[in-house]
Structure formats: structure tokens, C-alpha cells
Amino acid sequence: MEKTRNVTIKIDRTPPITNASAVDNSGAGYTFGTWVSASYVNISFNCNDSLSGCNTTLYCIDSNNSCTPNQTYNGTPIQISDEGISYIKYKTTDTAGNLESVKNRTIMIDRTPPTIIITSPVNTTLTYIQAGMNLTVAYNYTELHPKNLSLYLLDQTNTPIKVVTFNESNLSNGTQTRTDQIPIPNNASSGYYHVKIVIYDSAGNEGSAIQYNSVIITNETFDFYGVTYYPNGTKMNGTNVTIEIYQLPPYQGPSLVDSLSCLSDENGTFNLSNIMYHDTLLYKPIIRHFNGTALDYIGPSLPMLLARDFRNLGEVKFYLKPGATLNITAVNATNSSKTFNYMIKDTKLGYPVAEYFTPNPELAVSQAIVYVPADRNYSIMIYPFDSFPMSYDLSSLSGKPEQRDIKFNCTQEWKWVSGYAKYNGSANFTNLTIIAYLLEPGNMVSKEHPLPLNMGLWREQPKNDTIDATTGFFNITLPATPNGMKLLLFANAEKNGTYYGGFKNITLTIGGNDTTINFTLHELVGTNSILKVEKADGEIVNISTKEFLFNLTNANGTPVKNAHIEVKLDYTAL
Questions:
Q1: Mean pLDDT calculated for residue range 95-109
Q2: Is 554 domain-assigned?
Q3: Using CA atoms, how far apart are residues 93 and 114, in angstroms rounded to an integer?
């Protein structure tokens, strides 16, 4: 009889269990499915099987969570360094052949900080504000998973006086444009302040932007008050009194800061109270009276006044005159509307009585309604985008309330202007340049803004302009318009260190012939100087010449700055 034997049968129907763990490049533990700003994340697997034991662990990595585990884990940590979202799938078999279900983990790496740009306020165009008001801040940011964002108003020691914070529930992904507000504390002192924005993403990356000295808090105010009258001295009820407040940013035209208005009462009196004051601001009073919606009377055309001068005016009496409404539009060659900037000057006073300038074509106007006294003469300049400036001399107003429609035809064509420039009948110059200036109404030119040189490059079939310093011959390209482009030409020549010059007026009209003119040059007086002129290809050239300098001083000998200067020159006998 065979002896009894004991046989051990091991049955394993339980699949193994594999656990994944991770650390980042600093050695800190990483939580799967969260964003981290790290150079890499190392992943390790630990398998447990209490019966037959773990055999092989397989894994795979991709960015769309669709791969099948097919790589063998050898015990060395698996390193993932790609930015973005990565998926790792894994499973293990035991020695009994049991197969673990596929598991997956998500790794999220972001090393790119958010970007942010403050568009307002900026230190090139200051924002003036009073304590207790809300400061509007406009900005753009780009971030796929923003965590929080804070707006700071900082004093000159970079100490926050107010912070406004938004969490991720208030922030959107991607590229965003936002406008938010910072309440100015009631006890904020007058002075310059900085605006700073800090944004963090979910991985802890930081982006920031700051605009230093972009905000001026001013707690000074003053009142502007007085009486308005009809031309015959009767007090005028219902007169609109407006104060426009401007700043002068560097290298830019006036920028509107604020505007306040009120109506005169039955006694003609008005009072605009608590007007914001700062030494750097300019103030422009505008006085108008309307019969329904139509202007009938208007106050004098006044320039922008310095802050201290305006604040100290005291009671002001305004005697209104009949007013005119100017409706200014512009069209191109197909009679479609054209956008433009504009400036209107009183030809006798010389300074602008109305103007609008923007460097952005999308913000330019296609129509301008301007109110002016009806007993004056005006020069109207428009600056169409992609065209030369155009002018109109308005000298026929009736002196009574009226509306005048002024339409500019911005069609232009090129003309050849040729001739000779000589001194005592000969040339043989070392250098010769013909510079064209737009002749504005009132026969004014702006020395700093000549037309470009060599505009033949802008013809439909580009061709260089010709200037021969040896013979004095020139053949240059200039623009013509339907109503006539009025230009002042300045011929500037140099020979052996001596400078010569001459002027000519010219009007070029569409449909007219090319023009021939000759210059008789004369020796220039003054001190050596440089004229900077742009060429049609964008190059800036320095032209040596002579200029006569005037030094302006006040009664105590102190130099006068920012003066408006006009010089009359009679060259008809040249």
C-alpha cells in the first residue's frame, strides 16, 4: 500500500497592486494631477503581491492618454521634463500570470510665467485722480491657468497703499483684456504713485508689470465762477460753461484728462466747484449757448491756460458773440469717407481753437463738428491717414449764427517740379537740397515738419528724384490736390563752407501740368545748424544749413520756455 503524501497547492487569482509615487527636481514630493514649476518629475513604481509575487511592470507615456503600456520598468525612476500635460499608464503581472488593470496618472509641468502688460495708466500719459475716487486700470495678460492676480497702488517707497486681488474663479484662461478699479484711500496724500500688477499661475510661476510714476493723486481743488452776457450786455441764462483739463505728455500733443460742465442760471451766473488742480495741468474754458440743439452764441476762443494763472482768475465775465458751426468731413477718390485728425486756428491769434490728434487710425474721426465765433477767420488743417495734410482757408463767415459744411477731397496725384538753383548765375555747389513745406492757411509753415525727400519712390512706377549740385538742376516729385496743394520750397546749397538759400511758393493742382521754377540763391546768415528731414524710404538725413537764432527772455532776463513764436518773412523781392 502506497504511503500517503502531502501536496501543497497554491492558488493565486489576485492581481498585483502597483503604486506610483513622484518627486520633482528639488526632491519634494509631487502630487499627481497638479501643476508644478519644475525642471522634471521623477516617477517610481512599487508593486505588492502577497501570493505569487510581482513579475513585470509595464508602462507608457504620451500627451493624449491613449497609449498602451509596453515598456518594462527596471527600477530606475522615470523622468518627465516636457512642459504641458503628460499621462503615464502602467500595469503589473505576477508570477501566476494575473494581470493588473491599467492605471494612469497625470503629470502637469509649467515653467512659463504669465505675461502681463499695463495699457493704462502709463507714465507717458499720466492719470490724474483725487483721493476717494476709483482708479481705472486697463491691462492684458496671457496665461492658460491663472491662480490669482493682484493690482497694487504703490507710493514712492514702493509701499502698497491699496491692493485689489482676484482669485482663479474671477480669472479666465488664455489671452485676456481686462479693466478693473483700485479704490483710492480717502487719506491718500498728493503726489506721484506707481501701478503694479502681479499674476500667479497654478504652478506658482509669477508674472508682473509696473508703470512707475503713472498716477498723480491731487487733493487740491478750486472753483471757476462768473457771469455770461449777450452781446448787448444782457445776462444770459442757460449758457453751457465747460472746463477741459489737459496734460502735455512728452513729445505728444495735449491729452484730455477731464471735462466738467454747468449751465448759467437766470441771472447769468455759473459756478464750477471742486475742479481738480495740479501745477502740471492746463485748463481751457469753452463757453457756448444753444437754441435747442443749434449753436447761436459762443464765448471767445481761448488757449489752454496754465494752472496757476487759471486758478487765480477770480470772477470772470463772458460776453458771447454769434457762433458758427463747422461740419468738417473728408472723402477719397471714390467719394468714400476718410478718417483724419484736425487742427483749426484763428488766423489772427495764431493758436489752435480746436484740435484732435490720435496716432491710432481706428480712433481718428470721419466727421468733426466744431463751434467757433462767427466774426473771425480760420485756417483748417486735416491730417488724413495715408495722405498728406490738407488745408482750407475759411474767411467768409457772415458774423451771424450759421452752419458751414466743409468737405475735403483727399485725392492726390504726383507732379514733377523742375528747374535750376543758382547763385550769381552759376552753381558748382558741393551739396544742394530742395525741401518742401506745407504752406498752411495764414501763410504759416512748421519748420519741424517738412515733406519727405525723394517722393518719386512713391509713384506707381517708382523713380528717384534728380538733384545735380554741380549744374544746380533739380527734378523732384511733389503732391497735387483738387483744390491745390500750397507749398513753400526752400533751396539749400553749400559750397566751400558757405551756405546759400532761396524760397519759392508753389501751388500744385490735380490735372495741371508739371511745373518749372528757378531759384536765385542768396548767402545765408546766422549760425551753422542741422535740418533733419525724412526721406521717402524712411531714412533720416541731416542737412547742414544756417539759421538765425532768437533768444527770448522775460523782463528779469529769465529765458522763456514753451513760447508760441511766429516769424514773418517777406521774400518777394528775392
A1: 95
A2: no
A3: 44
